[in-house]
Write a structure and sequence with these properties.
By secondary structure, this protein is α/β, with parallel strands linked by helices. It has eleven helices and eight strands. It has an eight-stranded mixed β-sheet with strand order 1-2-4-3-5-6-7-8, with helices on both faces. Helix 3 packs across helix 4, helix 5 runs antiparallel to helix 6 and helix 6 crosses helix 7. The model has no long low-confidence stretch (mean pLDDT about 95).
Length: about 290
């Protein structure tokens, strides 16, 4: 009998856990894939229709095959997790939720891979729980500070907010068209699946818009505190990122104690999807060091 790993499956790895947040108990969804003593947590971005699985389905299997346990956590207001109106720091909210999930599962120390909002949340978690992080990988996010070169909010962030307010296929296509460097890779099926994800949870859309009204600056600028983080960090960016400009990656490289930066040319805001094979090899090498 052969023992090659069966292909990873969203439904078969899907779980829920209850996490206390303030006065509420939030039902948080996560996918738990593979076995291993070392755990890699993946945190998704803030785009409409985003989820752990949607963001990282091209990156799970190589890690599982290398012997890691992979946890994909849907942040409150995304995927199958409960919705929430957030008036404070979204980065810190997500960090608290992640801590709650890990506590419930009895997991102590983790490596974290964070994309966009997930990068901000990774930094927030590392600042609050330094003893619980091994290595960090940040793509297209990590601090909510301003770009020095590109007017904020960026073109991409404006389009995200438009989709939340008016979730049409036209608005989604406008956003996704600049989300990746080469939009020809985005099939109609992928677009439709993403729109279905978006429309499945009107509560997520409405609460995101309400959150922005309550606090337009959802993501903390951790620039001044980056020097507190000693965890080895791999920063990965797309040269052509129109959501979070590349110079933010340079701020992370300057600020963090122990960081390296890799920039992909011909790459937008979705490095782990657009350059999946090279990305996966780089992450495996970095974690094995």
């Amino acid at each position: 009998m052969s023992h090659h790993t069966p292909p990873v499956n969203e439904a078969a790895t899907s779980h829920f856990v209850s996490v206390r947040e303030g006065e509420a108990d939030l039902r948080i969804h996560y996918n738990d894939v593979g076995q291993g003593d070392e755990v890699v947590v993946m945190l998704h971005g803030s785009g409409p229709g985003a989820s752990g699985w949607a963001n990282f389905n091209r990156n799970i299997e190589p890690l599982v095959e290398a012997g890691y346990r992979v946890l994909l956590v849907d942040c409150p207001g995304w995927g199958k997790s409960d919705s929430i109106v957030n008036a404070g720091s979204r980065s810190e909210l997500n960090a608290r939720i992640l801590k709650g999930v890990l506590d419930e599962l009895g997991i102590g120390r983790v490596h974290i891979l964070g994309n966009s909002m997930g990068g901000h949340s990774t930094v927030a978690f590392a600042l609050a729980n330094p003893q619980r992080v091994g290595k960090l990988v940040l793509m297209g996010g990590g601090t909510g500070g301003p770009s020095q070169f590109v007017p904020m909010p960026t073109e991409g962030i404006k389009l995200i907010n438009t989709v939340y307010r008016e979730p049409t296929i036209e608005n989604l296509k406008k956003m996704m068209n600049i989300f990746v460097y080469d939009p020809s890779s985005l099939t109609d099926e992928l677009m439709q699946a993403r729109l279905d994800n978006v429309l499945a949870r009107r509560d997520h859309l409405e609460n995101f818009v309400k959150s922005l009204a309550a606090n337009p600056k959802q993501f903390t600028d951790y620039g001044p505190r980056l020097g507190e983080i000693s965890a080895p960090t791999l920063v990965i960016w797309g040269r052509d990122d129109r959501f979070v400009p590349m110079d933010i990656g340079l701020r992370l490289l300057w600020g963090l104690q122990n960081a390296e930066l890799h920039v992909f040319a011909r790459c937008g805001h979705w490095a782990q999807w657009e350059h999946a094979d090279a990305f996966n090899r780089m992450v495996l090498d970095f974690l094995a060091k």
